[in-house]
Amino acid sequence: MVFDPLKYYESYPSKIILRPGYPARAQYKSTLMWSLYGKRILKSLGKIDNYADIGGCFGFGANSMAFQINKHQGHYPRTSVFELASNFVIIGRQLYPYINFIQGSILEYKETEDIFDLVTMFDLIEHVPEPEMFLSSISERAKFGLLMTPMETGGDWFGAKPPDKQGDHHPDGHINFYTPKNYLKLLDDGGWELIEGKFVKSVINRDNRFVLEPEELGSNPSVNKEKLSEGTDHRILYEVDLLKYFFNKCLLNLCSLSPYYFVRKILGGGYHLCLVKSRAYK
């Protein structure tokens, strides 16, 4: 069965809004990316008058980015959010009436010929059918871009395999999976010049994880008694569960202390954060 993004995202908002850390993560990502690359954008452009967040959901990230831009240049940019799912747009307009929420793809938006000074694409490229064509089309409508994209393939030394669960079966509907090498090639082929970027193990560190990822934090090991058949030795199951819990916790701590180069080569994963410039606008 062919994965249909529009159909998938019709039910996506209810899943997203139930995640307790989602609003904080969306705002944090915008603040983080601006802190890394904002001054360089303003140095090149002088000012940002027209900004769009593509796949911006409820607008948490766009509102945070617009705030950062205002703080550094003294006025807010015209801010737009492009989103496929109608529920995101309806809720977003209620939350942020001063943001222009546009339901549909930016590729099909013909109401204005405006060129965006800046577009943001956070956790987006992994969702998009034909990502090279998508990026190329965006490069014709924007001067600069800030991108944040997960590298979900396995360790490079072991074949960099994509996950088994994809599309409808992936928890977030991802259909594109990258290694660092083929992701950088995608940006280049899509019409973007990499100005500055870096690969990181995670955008969330150990100190702020309890705020930004409360739903991901492991709880104390326990046994679901409802799923146990009669005669099951609860002590054995609990001990196995306990071992898994501490093994995963030790593995997580080990990864957090190891350089990304080795984590990427052995286990894979990670994120790429970058500032790119469209080749269509010099």
UniProtKB/TrEMBL annotation:
InterPro entries: SAM-dependent_MTases_sf. GO terms for molecular function: methyltransferase activity. It comes from the Archaea. Keywords: Methyltransferase, Transferase. Coiled coil: none annotated. This is Methyltransferase type 11. It comes from Methanothrix harundinacea (strain 6Ac). The keyword Transferase applies. The lineage of its organism: Archaea, Methanobacteriati, Methanobacteriota, Stenosarchaea group, Methanomicrobia. GO terms for biological process: methylation.
